[in-house]
């Protein structure tokens, strides 16, 4: 046998073994690919379970205290605290009583006069605000303006031992009369309070001296006249266009002392401007009801140059 023949014969078994090896290798690769595909598939399911909250069949159930994604797209917010101004008087007063930032005399003011509770309540927020006071419209009206002592434009300004809002009824009443009779809007409550303080008419701890009406008013362009407590005399001055500033003691209007302005009368009684209580201004007051509370009276008119 030639070498060539022997070589071909010798190669046959080797060729068969090589083909068998390749097939086996291909099967192993296929099995490996199947295994890898299965792993990828299971991994994908696991990722889905992780990000979408869908557990696999063999995943353990969620514990009762586990945090689960909310299914409510608009969760209910926490309740908003009730605004202070929406509270009733008793609730506002209780809030003020519990807050030590409120001065004691302001607390007592709110306890005595319910109509001022919002003014007192706003004290921490508004006590340092600055206001431009323009009463030119009131001055041009040609009548006595109705000003409230606890108006926030001037109610938090200092006066005497406290603030205009609860100690400044005197300056506010004189401001009303000065603006109404002279037409000079510069005599707003803040300016009259400063005038009273600078000239000794403000008595810390005791309020406004009567001399602010009998003497100080002259420097505001007024001619004051102290008058007797007489219904006829009062009506005569009111008919002549002379408003009357009065000071009253304890009774319908105050627990201590209080200035007000009488502007007119009709067949039901006298019309007043109460700088501390708008409700009193809406009423008329008979001489019999009013006179026992009056301590002094000053009729006012403008000092017109000759």
Describe it for me?
- The protein is α+β, with helices and mostly antiparallel strands.
- The chain has a domain at 129-302: Alpha-Beta Complex (Cathepsin B, Chain A), CATH 3.90.70.10.
- Helix content is 43%, strand content 14%.
- The protein is built from 13 helices and 10 strands.
- It has helices at 3-52, 89-98, 104-112, 117-121, 123-126, 136-140, 164-167, 169-182, 189-198, 211-214, 231-239, 278-281, 287-290; strands at residues 158-159, 162-163, 202-203, 207-208, 222-226, 244-248, 258-266, 269-273, 284-285, 294-302.
- The strands form 3 sheets. The chain has a 6-stranded antiparallel beta sheet. A two-stranded antiparallel ribbon has the order 1-2.
- β7 (258-266) and β8 form a beta hairpin.
- α8 (169-182) packs across α9.
- It starts with a helix and ends with a strand.
- The model is unreliable at 1-18 and 47-73 (pLDDT under 50).
């Amino acid at each position: 046998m030639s070498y060539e023949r022997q070589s071909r014969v010798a190669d046959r078994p080797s060729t068969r073994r090589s083909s068998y090896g390749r097939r086996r290798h291909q099967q192993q690769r296929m099995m490996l690919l199947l295994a890898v595909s299965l792993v990828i598939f299971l991994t994908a399911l696991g990722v889905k379970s992780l990000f979408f909250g869908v557990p696999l069949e063999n995943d353990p159930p969620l514990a009762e205290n586990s945090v689960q994604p909310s299914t409510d797209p608009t969760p209910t917010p926490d309740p908003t605290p009730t605004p202070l101004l929406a509270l009733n008087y008793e609730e506002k007063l209780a809030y003020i009583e519990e807050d030590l930032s409120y001065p004691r005399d302001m607390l007592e003011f709110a306890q005595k006069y319910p109509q001022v509770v919002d003014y007192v309540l706003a004290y921490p927020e508004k006590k340092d605000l600055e206001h431009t006071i323009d009463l030119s419209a009131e001055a041009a009206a040609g009548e006595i303006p109705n000003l409230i002592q606890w108006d926030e434009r001037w109610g938090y300004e200092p006066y005497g031992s406290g603030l205009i809002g609860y100690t400044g009824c005197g300056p506010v009443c004189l401001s009303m009369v000065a603006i109404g009779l002279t037409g000079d809007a510069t005599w707003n409550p803040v300016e009259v309070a400063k005038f009273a303080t600078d000239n000794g008419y403000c008595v810390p701890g005791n309020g406004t001296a009567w001399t602010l009406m009998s003497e100080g008013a002259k420097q505001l362009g007024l001619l004051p006249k102290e008058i007797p407590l007489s219904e006829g005399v009062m009506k005569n001055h009111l008919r002549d266009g002379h408003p009357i500033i009065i000071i009253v003691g304890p009774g319908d209007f105050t627990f201590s002392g209080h200035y007000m302005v009488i502007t007119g009368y009709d067949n039901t009684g006298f019309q007043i401007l109460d700088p501390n209580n708008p409700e009193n201004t809406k009423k008329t007051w008979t001489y019999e009801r009013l006179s026992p509370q009056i301590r002094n009276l000053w009729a006012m008119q403008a000092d017109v140059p000759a």
